[in-house]
Amino acid sequence: MRSFLWGTYLVATIVVPYSLGKLTGLRIDDPKKPDALYPAVKLKAILAPLLLLRLGYPDTITAYSMEDNQLGLRQVLNMSITVTVVAGILIRCWNYTSFTILYFPMFLAGIIKYVEGVWALKFSLGLNTGITAKEIAGEGMVPRFLDALPKIDGLELVVKAYYRFHCLKPHLEDWIYHPRFISHRQLSIDHCSHQEAFRITEIELGFMYDVLYTKAPVIYMKLGLFIWFVSFFWLVVTLCRFNALPKSILHLDVIMRNGKMGFGAFVYSYQYTKFTFCVLMLALLLVAYQILLLPYSEWAIVKMSKRSNWPLVPMFLQFFAPRSAHKWRQWSDSMYQFNLLHYCLRRDWTRHIKFLNFWGIYDYINWNWSLNRMGPASLPENLKERVWEELKVFEKARRTHPFSKRGEWSFERYSVGTGEEIRRSIETAFDKSILAWHIVTDICYHHHSEEQIFRETIPFKR
Prior knowledge:
Helices cover 66% and strands 1% of the residues. The relative contact order is 0.08. By secondary structure, it is mainly α.
């Protein structure tokens, strides 16, 4: 699925410019083409702004990797060139008829969606990496805002996760934040249960994913919502106007210069009319579906919580907040397992196929086989509770000191021997230390399991 999605994402940026290049050959009153094809030419021309609409991408994906966000400024140049090409296609096919009037609303909808996609790319990493006086004043109002929230199940979790993400901004490098806001009573998770702590972290990671790879931060702004409904309005206008046009207008140019109707040309034009209508309807349904999904998001819940005194807003919060906090899951509570020893010691017949080593294909297959061999493992509640208790212990020991310890506290807490070999394993390079302790954990886990089985079977042997 990941490979299919990545391939589709890449192909979309290739197919659309290629299709626009083919459409640049369209022209009304072209002496090289028969007059009977003029209706099809005008119908084909409306596909140009439709392709522009698709370049804006749906709300759920604007980037596939971090590098796409870093190229957001370059997309402005691509957008300018593409919009110019589409405008040239429409101008060449314009002949002041009732049908060509449809080009204008469709063109506006396409430009709006394309600008929205580029804006989302630029917005994800275009924030200032330092904190301003306005942001400090705004964050100072957060505790009072949390105290005034209506008592709705799950609402406080979502809002707390949002403001923790807003203060920390973990997706930005060198972001300067004030830890006193995070340590405040309303934003702190020190006194939360392990279920609430994991759920808040899950929502925070969902916010981070939305910022990096979707349009969520843009479309839930006032300007973003305005752009959404304006583009939807122009799509509705285009479809209604297209459906209301008399069929005689659509096929008027089919009449030959000698006054006779070309039946083949009429059928050709009729098929293009139905095809264009279906494409417009599909584009409208896709946009309408995305609008219906707008309230089913943590972003919408946060925005509605800021307007909780408005009419009908508490009713919407009562419906959406509990479902977001408890039912809509971003995480499946499972993790894939990777055994480094199995990966390094595994030998199979595919290593003898030479062409698999080209571009690292063999390593890629071996890596995925080792990763998927055992499948994802669910994370039980008792393990979540143990992890949460351990984190609180280490946080209490750390206090205000930086994260500079790499195992010393665990050695001291569990009275582990301080031999030279153990000390060397945590004082070496960080990546080597991770690899060493991954192998040690795997060996100790299986060794402990074997000893446990042996102890349980001794009474039966006696």
